[in-house]
Amino acid sequence: MIFYFSGCGNSRHVAETLAAGLNDTLIFIPEAAREGRYEYELAEGERLGFVFPVYSWAPPKLVIDFIEKLKVKVGPSTLRQAQGPQGSGTLNYLYFACTCGDNCGHTERVFRKAVEEKSWSLSACFSVQMPETYIGMAGFKLDTSKNAQLKINRSDDMLTRYIPRLINKEHFSEMVVGSLAWLKTYLVNPGFNRSATDDSKYYVTEACIHCGKCVEVCPLKNITLEEGCPKWNGNCTMCMACYHHCPVNAIQYGKATVGKGQYYFGKKG
Ligand SMILES: Cc1cc2nc3c(=O)[nH]c(=O)nc-3n(C[C@H](O)[C@H](O)[C@H](O)COP(=O)(O)O)c2cc1C
Ligand code: SF4
Ligand code: SF4
Predict the structure, then answer these.
(1) Ligand 3 touching residue 232 (CB < 6 A)
(2) DSSP of 82-139
(3) Which residues of the chain, if any, have pLDDT below 50?
(4) Would you say 148 and 195 are in contact if contact means Cβ atoms under 8 Å apart?
(5) 90-105 confidence digits (pLDDT tens)
């Protein structure tokens, strides 16, 4: 079973590739959370996977919040009770794959802490670099289309190599941590999480053709159309999917996004 989150399609692509290679089922975290589906059953020996983008050098808060509430039953008993001497009902392989534009800071430590608080232990994790999606601040820009394609090709090769390792339940950690990781994850990230729900800087220009694509693509269902134009309703995770997916680039985020172009994995008009 694979739980995943994706704003702009990169992590969805990774999750779908892993699910196909591992013959696993996929569960979209925002949908499950919206519907209050927090209880799942795994067969004895089944792998539990998570796939998500790195947001400000940590897992997105909504992923950590979901894990906190998640209850997984393995075989005959729940994981919380699963430390029995026979090991019956024990979760035996837990992994995550994260996508990032560049590097992940201490994403692994934050994730590990979240699962260890549930008495689960992390068996494997890896990061794959995918095209950048964050352009909500001065100085952040998208990859060139050539570079974006190179990253996608390279990540597909990496996944081809990771799938057999996950099938074999190998224990490993292969993360691109990057520089100043402690500072980024433990000082910058909390500030990002406090402001990430603030969608008040989003606005729409006169170019809007009232197609409703932004409503459709928002993973949190945070956008409604009012007189044909998007209205943001304060439950945002700053994934930027609405911005990137608008067919006429009519959405902007303050001045930061102006003229920076769009990217959305496998974008369809
Ligand atoms: C709000 C936000 C924060 C991000 N923070 C980071 C980061 O800390 N490090 C990094 O390398 N990439 C960062 N990125 C880039 C994404 O992790 C990367 O593009 C990812 O593949 C997007 O996945 P998605 O298409 O599934 O949403 C960020 C993107 C967004 C939208
Ligand atoms: S996706 Fe763009 S054009 Fe379509 S309704 Fe939203 S803002 Fe308007
Ligand atoms: S409003 Fe836009 S940025 Fe916020 S969660 Fe929805 S799609 Fe993502």
Answers:
(1) yes
(2) TT-TT-TT----EEEEEEESS--TTHHHHHHHHHHTTT----EEEEEE------SSTT
(3) 77-88
(4) no
(5) 898 999 999 999 999 9
HEC string of 67-91? HHHCEEEECCEEHHHCCCCCCCCCC
Q: Whose atoms come closest to the Cα of 230: which ligand?
A: 2
Residue 260 near residue 139, CB atoms below 8 Å: no
Report the pocket of ligand 2 as residue ranges, CB < 6 Å: 204, 208-214, 230, 246, 248, 250-251
Selection from 83, 111, 114 nearest residue 97 by Cα: 111
Show the domains of the chain with their CATH numbers.
2-193 (3.40.50.360), 202-253 (3.30.70.20)
To test the pocket of ligand 1, the residue of 10, 11, 54, 111 to mutate (highest count of ligand atoms within 8 Å of its CB) is 54
Specify the residue for token string 């998570």.
50
Which residues, 6+ apart, have CB-to-CB distance to 98 below 8 Å? 11, 51, 52, 53, 54, 59, 104, 107, 125, 126, 127, 128, 175
